[in-house]
Design a protein that fits this description.
With about 260 residues, this protein is of the alpha/beta class. Helix content is about 35%, strand content about 20%. The chain has helices spanning about 25-35, 50-60, 90-110, 140-150, 170-185, 190-195, 205-210, 240-255; strands spanning about 10, 40-45, 65, 70-75, 80-85, 115, 125-130, 155-160, 160-165, 195-200, 215, 235. The two termini are about 15 Å apart.
Length: about 260
């Protein structure tokens, strides 16, 4: 993939891909508006909670938001938000209670972990903080926590700040493909691979790097590269939202 390939749809991670040091840089927001003006659809695909996704869908210049690692989508149409869920409400609520209990067991094993502050705003998953307000957690401790969760029969992945865990078969890739099936039903898989791009920054982006031919990472992917079997095709020299804006600058300059 060249730095100047122009997709029709961009799927993007949020934390530490669009943000930088916990904030949304001016350069990121400007890049998002420039993409909208260029008629390029932008769909954040994130492990972030439903409350955060609702705010993104309402206030940012994006086409839709896929949240909690593919568990739901918020579409924007005619000034309204439309939630598309993957589980019936009662099943979702029952699963939430099981996840909360499992998270408490993980914290009982290692008190350095914390419950993510945004769990009250989550619809499907439950998050454990290891690198947002929590600190001092080693890679070994992170992997032990993930193994504990997986051994309990629950899916989990580590973003740059949280362990996200959920019950179900949803993931970022499936969430993106579900959106495409609904909004671009005439596209073949070959067209999807030609006309879509993904940009991310961490280990939980690997399925997207593996699937999308036009895969990009911001510079802070560097510590994770040795553990990625499927690496992004292009890596920016700037971190977070500044790296995203750097990629968009090159992409639109070559349009």
């Amino acid at each position: 993939m060249s730095a100047f390939s122009r997709p029709d749809v961009i799927f993007t991670d949020v934390d530490d891909t669009l943000t930088l040091h916990g904030e949304l840089p001016v350069a990121t927001l400007t890049a998002l508006y420039r993409l909208r003006e260029a008629n390029i659809a932008v769909i954040p695909v994130t492990g972030a909670c439903a409350g955060w996704c609702d705010q993104i869908a309402r206030l940012w210049p994006v086409t839709a938001v896929i949240g909690e690692n593919g568990a739901f989508c918020i579409d924007k149409a005619d000034g309204q938000l439309h939630y598309i869920d993957t589980q019936p409400e009662q099943q979702r609520l029952d699963n939430h209670r099981c996840l909360q209990a499992l998270a408490e067991r993980v914290l009982a094993d290692n008190s350095k972990f914390k419950l993510a502050q945004d769990n009250v705003y989550r619809r499907y998953d439950w998050a454990i903080d290891y690198n947002q307000h929590a600190s001092g957690i080693t890679q070994q401790e992170l992997e032990q926590a993930l193994a504990h969760i997986h051994n309990s029969g629950v899916q989990a992945t580590a973003s740059s700040i949280h362990i996200n865990m959920w019950i179900g078969d949803n993931n970022k890739k499936q969430g993106a493909l579900n959106w495409l099936a609904h909004h671009r039903p005439d596209w073949s898989e070959q067209q999807i691979l030609q006309r879509c791009a993904y940009i991310g920054d961490s280990l939980n982006d690997e399925p997207m790097f593996a699937y999308f031919r036009h895969s990009v990472a911001v510079a802070n992917i560097a510590p994770h590269l040795p553990r990625l079997q499927h690496k992004p095709a292009l890596i920016m020299t700037k971190e977070g939202g500044e790296g995203f804006a750097q990629w968009v600058d090159g992409l639109l300059a070559g349009a």
